[in-house]
Automatic annotation (TrEMBL):
Monomer. InterPro entries: 4Fe4S_Fe-S-bd, 4Fe4S_Fe_S_CS, QueG, QueG_DUF1730. Gene3D superfamilies: 3.30.70.20. This is Epoxyqueuosine reductase.
Length: 378
C-alpha cells in the first residue's frame, strides 16, 4: 500500500459509507483472536456444540481468520439492527394457541442482504484505492463474528454470549469485511453487565450454564433450528409455544430497553409468521411450507422439523379436540421422528383432558364449605 494513504481519514470515510449503506454501526479491528483459543477448545471439549459438527472443523481458521483470505490484516465489522416494529412479544408468548418465531426470522433472510451491502462497501473502497483486496462474510465461513465485533468496539459480550451495545441492546446482525489495508483499529467497549444474571435465570431450559457459556444442547434455538433428530423430552414442556428460536434472554436484558426498531423493509414481519395460529401452521403441506418461507431463514430447517416443533407446541397447549384431531390426522403421513413427537403431544393432550374434567381446587374448597353448612342427610 502506498505510504501516502491517510488511513485515519479512510477509516472515517469507510464508517460513513457503511452507514450510508444501512449499517447502524461500523468498527475496525485486527485479526488476532489468540486469546479465545482456550475458551473455544474448552467449549468443544465439553461437547456444548451438540450436533453442530461444523464447529469442530477448521478450528485453526476460526482462531486465525487471516487464513480465510490471505493478505487480510483488518476486519471491518458491521452491525445491522433487526428489531421489528410492533414485535408482539407478549401477545404471542402468552397465547399458547399461537406459535412464537424468533424475531430475527420474521422477515427476509439477512445473509444475502448484508453480504451484498458489504460487497458494495468493499467496491467503494476499491474504487478509491485500486490495490484494495477484500472479502465479505455473513455466517458464510468459520468466522468468530462476536469476538471480532467486540474487538472492533461494536459492543461487549453479555452473559448470554450475545453482543450487547449500551445504546441499542442486542437486536442486531453482524457481518465482516476482511481487507488488506492497515487501517487504525477501534477500542473495545467496557463490559457493563455487572452483577446482573437475568438472562441466566430466565432461560427456560437453563442453557446458560455459567456466565458467557451456553450449552447449545439445552438451548431452544438449537433444539428448534440446529438439532436434526428428536428433541429430548426433558426440554419439550419448557419450549412452550416457541417453534423457531427463542428470544427470552434478550427480552429480559435491561440493555434492550434502549433498542431501536429497524426501518429496514426487508426485516418487516411477514404476516403469516408474526402471530400465527399453531393449527394453521401445522396444516401446511410441504409445498405450502416452501412457498410461505421463501426467502426466510426458516426454510432451511425443512418441513419435517417444522412439524416436529409445532407438534411439541400443540402438546403444550391447553386441551382441545381440534388439536387432537389435527395431530391424529398427520401421525401416519410424517417421518418416524415427527410421529414420535405427535404421539408425545397426544399423550400430553390426553393428560390435560383428564385434568380438565377434575374439579378445580377452588371448586373443591367451595364444595367443602357448602357441605359443612348442610344437614348430614341433605
Amino acid at each position: 500500500m502506498p505510504d501516502s494513504i491517510d488511513y485515519h481519514a479512510l477509516a472515517r470515510d469507510i464508517k460513513e459509507w457503511g452507514k450510508e449503506l444501512g449499517f447502524q454501526d461500523v468498527g475496525i479491528t485486527d485479526l488476532d483472536l489468540s486469546q479465545h483459543q482456550a475458551s473455544l477448545q474448552k467449549w468443544l471439549d465439553n461437547e456444548y456444540h451438540g450436533e453442530m459438527e461444523y464447529m469442530q472443523r477448521h478450528v485453526d481458521l476460526r482462531l486465525h481468520p487471516e487464513l480465510l483470505h490471505p493478505g487480510s490484516v483488518r476486519a471491518i465489522c458491521v452491525r445491522m439492527d433487526y428489531l421489528p416494529k410492533g414485535a408482539l412479544f407478549a401477545k404471542v408468548l402468552k397465547n399458547p394457541q399461537l406459535g412464537y418465531v424468533s424475531r430475527y426470522a420474521l422477515g427476509r433472510d439477512y445473509h444475502k442482504l448484508m453480504r451484498k451491502r458489504l460487497k458494495k462497501l468493499g467496491d467503494r473502497i476499491k474504487a478509491a484505492f485500486a490495490d484494495t483486496d477484500f472479502r465479505p462474510f455473513v455466517d458464510s465461513a468459520p468466522v468468530m463474528e462476536r469476538p471480532l465485533a467486540e474487538k472492533a468496539g461494536l459492543g461487549w459480550t453479555g452473559k448470554h454470549s450475545l453482543l450487547l451495545d449500551s445504546k441499542d441492546g442486542s437486536w442486531f446482525f453482524l457481518g465482516e469485511l476482511f481487507i488488506n489495508l492497515p487501517l487504525p483499529v477501534d477500542e473495545k467497549q467496557p463490559e457493563q453487565c455487572g452483577k446482573c444474571t437475568a438472562c441466566m435465570t430466565i432461560c427456560p431450559t437453563q442453557a446458560i450454564v455459567e456466565p458467557y457459556v451456553v450449552d447449545a444442547r439445552r438451548c431452544i434455538s438449537y433444539l428448534t433450528i440446529e438439532l436434526q433428530g428428536p428433541i429430548p423430552e426433558e426440554f419439550r414442556r419448557p419450549m412452550g409455544n416457541r417453534i423457531y428460536g427463542c428470544d427470552d434472554c434478550q427480552l429480559i436484558c435491561p440493555w434492550n430497553r434502549y433498542a431501536t426498531p429497524t426501518d429496514e423493509g426487508d426485516f418487516a414481519p411477514r404476516h403469516q409468521l408474526h402471530a400465527p395460529e399453531l393449527l394453521t401452521l401445522f396444516g401446511w403441506d410441504e409445498a405450502t411450507f416452501l412457498q410461505q418461507t421463501e426467502g426466510s431463514p426458516i426454510r432451511r430447517i425443512g418441513h419435517q422439523r417444522w412439524l416436529r416443533n409445532i407438534a411439541v407446541a400443540l402438546g403444550n397447549a391447553p386441551y382441545s379436540e381440534d388439536i387432537v384431531t389435527a395431530l391424529q390426522s398427520r401421525q401416519h403421513e410424517v417421518s418416524d421422528m415427527v410421529s414420535e413427537h405427535i404421539a408425545w403431544a397426544l399423550a400430553e393432550q390426553a393428560a390435560k383432558k383428564i385434568d380438565s374434567q377434575r374439579p378445580s381446587q377452588q371448586i373443591k374448597r367451595l364444595v367443602r364449605v357448602i357441605e359443612k353448612g348442610l344437614p348430614r342427610d341433605a
